[in-house]
Every structure is written in structure tokens, then in C-alpha cells.
Design a protein that fits this description.
Helices cover about 60% and strands about 0% of the residues. With about 45 residues, the chain is an all-alpha fold. The protein has two helices and no strands.
Length: about 45
């Protein structure tokens, strides 16, 4: 399976705001990411 990702550049004066916004992730979002990660891992290990 080919995986894709990206990197971004955050301006220094916006870094604190970026970190604050991304630190407060909704629990539902974390759960879905966890479930998708494990289901994908399971499929690729077959």
C-alpha cells in the first residue's frame, strides 16, 4: 500500500496558535483515527 502525507510550514509568529488549536483534538476524532489506523494495519498484514 502506498502512503501519502504532506508537510507544512507554519510562520513563527503563528506557531503558538497552531499548537494550541491542534492540542485540543475532539475525543471522537482521536477514536476514529485509532480505529482506522488499526483496521488498515490489520488489512496490510494479511
Amino acid at each position: 500500500m502506498k502512503r501519502y502525507g504532506w508537510t507544512i510550514k507554519v510562520k513563527r509568529d503563528k506557531l503558538a496558535e497552531y499548537k494550541a488549536l491542534h492540542a485540543a483534538v475532539w475525543p471522537e476524532t482521536v477514536r476514529v483515527i485509532f480505529l482506522v489506523t488499526w483496521s488498515t494495519r490489520d488489512e496490510t498484514s494479511r
